[in-house]
Amino acid sequence: MSASTAPNGRDFPNGGGAASVLAAGIGSFLVALFALLADKIASIKNLMAFYKPTGPLSGVTTCAIVAWLVTWAILYVRWRNRSVALARVGTTALILLIAGVLLTFPPIADWF
Amino acid sequence: MEITTRSFWTMIHGMGFGALYLMACSGALVELYRRYCPRNAAPPTARDEVFLRVYLTAMALIAWLTVLTGAYIIYPWYRAVPPPGTANLAAFPQRLLLSSPFTSGWHSMGMEWKEHVAWIVPICTTMAAAVVLQYGRNLKSHLQLRNLVLSFVWMALFAAVVAGFFGAMINKNAPVEGGTTIRIMQGGRR
């Protein structure tokens, strides 16, 4: 997108932006979800040690990032040329983001 | 004046990339709010647009460098396992913290939270950079989208503050030390 394509902002579909926002929410939630699974299930913990010196953190974050990027690419291809219900997409993304942050907090993760 | 290689990398990670991100983040929040504020009658200029694109892309890069140096350079030193019978745990920060009930919380709460929540920062910042790269000045016409980007950057700032605070406190209680010594300068005799 060049800097000179500004005038008709309202006509610019929100789908591409919505895809980025929702994917970021999903990615943030997946970091917490994979961390929780690796913490609670020994077999997953061992599986996640992609790089031994870093331990399961290497697999947890690599899997979450790959899943985030794949989700982002899929959503972007599907939504880039259309406008979507941003209120609903944004609320879902924010809920996932907040859930992700809360689930990484050890006292909350320990409830599961 | 000397510094060990492990201390040097810890400094690059925390005081370099981490602190730089925290400072840049507050700037990004102000810029995103101010330049795309619907009450602001003047539309963002092409120069504003280029500035914010470069600024957020650099911020995303710094966020990635922070988590990558933390997880793949410093964390292995932090979680190193001492050989059986080791009495001096100074070179094994995680074990040193866990050896006392007065410091174990810095690991079980602090590091456990920090090591995961920090990864949310580059994800949110990359998203913000991507949206600004894609929309540029058009973001002013998409108030909902601009508010969502702002919310994610606020959350990234919160996660970065958590990671930065615990990183500093953990390093204060059990510093990552060791490796070769780098002599920066020779002090004079008094």
How is this structure best summarized?
The complex is a heterodimer of chains A (112) and B (190). Chain A has one domain (21-109).
Blueprint (SSEs and pairs):
The complex is a heterodimer of chains A (112) and B (190).
Chain A (H helix, E strand, L loop, with lengths): L14 H26 L1 H6 L8 H24 L6 H19 L1 H4 L3
Helix pairs in contact in A: 1-3, 1-4
Chain B lengths: L1 E3 H31 L10 H33 L14 H6 L5 H14 L2 H16 L7 H31 L7 E3 L7
Antiparallel strand pairs in B: 1-2
Helix pairs in contact in B: 1-2, 1-6, 2-5, 4-6, 5-6
Summary keywords:
heterodimer; A: about 110 residues; mainly alpha; 5 helices; elongated; B: about 190 residues; two-stranded antiparallel ribbon
Written description of the protein model:
The complex is a heterodimer of chains A (112) and B (190). Chain A has one domain (21-109). Helix content of chain A is 71%, strand content 0%. Chain A has five helices and no strands. In chain A, helix 1 runs antiparallel to helix 3. Mean pLDDT of chain A is 91; it is low at 1-8. With 190 residues, chain B is mainly alpha-helical. In chain B, 69% of the residues lie in helices and 3% in strands. Chain B has helices at 5-35, 46-78, 93-98, 104-117, 120-135, 143-173; strands at residues 2-4, 181-183. The longest helix of chain B is centred in the N-terminal third of the chain and has 33 residues, at 46-78. Chain B is elongated. The mean pLDDT of chain B is 92. The chains are: A mainly alpha (112), B mainly alpha (190). The interface between A and B is large, with 45 and 45 residues.
